[in-house]
Amino acid sequence: MAPSFNDENSLFNFVVKEGNGVKGLVDLGLTEVPDRYIQPPHHRINNKQAAGSHENLIIDLSEFDGPNHEQVVKAIAHASETLGFFQVVNHGVPLELLESLKVVAHQFFGQPVEKKVVYLKGVSPTPLVQYGTSFVPENEKAWEWRDFVTMTYTNDAEARELWPNDCKEVVLEFIKTTSEMVQKLLQALINNLGVKVGDSRFHELTGFNTVNLNFYPPCPNPELTVGIGRHSDAGMLTVLLQDNIGGLYVRKAEPDHASPGNELWVEIPPVHGALVMNVGDSLQILSNGRYQSAEHRVRTTNTVSRVAVPIFNGPLPTTKFGPFPEIVARDGVARYKEVVYGEYLKSYFEKSLDGKKSLEFASME
User: Fold this and answer.
1) Residue 342 φ then ψ, to 5°
2) Contact at 8 Å (CB) between 97 and 105?
């Protein structure tokens, strides 16, 4: 039964509990978004605030293991200290795989709802696969125009047994082919801080991966909605494949701390064959604030459906971590306290997305 768009309970049941999601609404042929999706004015994406692409945003990783290694590391570190975002090319991930990822993402969300609700939050046969919509719709005043499925990686055998059949092999290959790159970048960023980390500790800090397939159906009122609200990621480093439609915006840090609605946002344009990288909260904590987790958000479009596939790399859930002692000794102050990553994630997912407020969980203040 189609929901009454004016009845929040009916809408919640249709979109969230029954798993129809935003795609289910679009398939009904709606011509304007329900009130529940209308964002407060200061959360909407105003193109007048958007700057062009950031200088030195694209980094060629073919130079990483050659004579220009130091220059590449400096470029990566500079991007991580300022915008918290950069794009990489010549990264070693086959372009055919990236195209296949986009195809299987569209295929997953194009299935009948009965196939998707098998993995619905709360009823999924495994905690390793969760299908849902928005971020935490139970807690949000305004919902995001997005459906998603999250797959947590433990090992190949469990992934092949428990992940959705139609996308598991391609997603697994995406994790495998990006893993070495992510490890190299994180090792370089940590070394750049003047810190040495042993292999077992490095694994504790970087050994946890989850993958999202994000789906953004066309929206009749893109100026009133967001695909994903403003937030930073919880982990160490995120690898993102965007399609050629675009819509990702990153907040540019400003010295005068511009008020909400007046900040400057940089669009991260789609570049064929590139992968987008961004710093997460955990790397900001470990670096004692030297590296900046990037506050970002995603706009909607009224033309076509788009997909994006991020891999979130982070510490193992049982790992306790705080700022590296060497950096605290140098800085003379610890800006963050020690936290257990699993507890950080629990706090992160209990709240609505709200900029970088997730970091308050680890704040010393």
Assistant:
1) -60, -35
2) no
Compute, in degrees rounded to 10, the torsion defined by CA atoms 206, 211, 217, 223: -10
Spatial CB neighbours of 247, under 8 Å, sequence gap ≥ 6: 216, 227, 298, 299, 300, 301, 306
Return d(Cα 309, Cα 329) in angstroms, integer.
Answer: 38
Rounded to whole angstroms, the Cα distance separating 171 from 311 reads 10
Q: Which two tokens stand for residue 134?
A: 């928005």
Type of residue found at 149: V
Contact (CB, 8 A) for 356 and 285: no
Distance between CA atoms of residues 44 and 100, nearest Å: 32
**Contacts (Cβ under 8 Å, ≥6 apart) of 270:** 242, 243, 244, 245, 246
Q: How many domains does the chain have?
A: 1
The CATH number covering residue 321 comes to 2.60.120.330
First to last CA, the chain: 50
Locate 31 and state its tokens: 């011509």
**How many residues are given for the chain?**
365
* 141 SS3 class: coil
C-beta of residue 22 within 8 angstroms of C-beta of residue 15: yes
Q: Is residue 6 part of a domain?
A: no
**Contacts with 293 (C-beta within 8 Å, 6 or more apart), sequence order:** 84, 232, 233, 278, 279, 280, 281, 283, 284, 356, 359
180-207 per-position pLDDT tens digit:
999 999 999 999 999 999 999 999 999 9
Within a domain: residue 16? no
pTM above 0.90, yes or no: yes
CA 231/CA 84 separation, integer angstroms: 13
Residue 295 contacts residue 355 (beta carbons within 8 Å): yes
101 alpha carbon, distance to own chain's centre: 16
Query: Are 173 and 97 a contacting pair, CB within 8 Å?
Result: yes
Domain-embedded: residue 26: no
| 50, part of any domain | yes
Taking alpha carbons only, the member of 185, 152, 167, 159 closest to residue 108 is 167
pLDDT in tens, 127-152: 999 999 998 898 889 999 999 999 99
Q: State the residue range of the domain holding 47.
A: 38-362
The rounded distance, in Å, linking the Cα atoms of 157 and 161 is 6
CA 353 from chain centre, in angstroms, equals 12
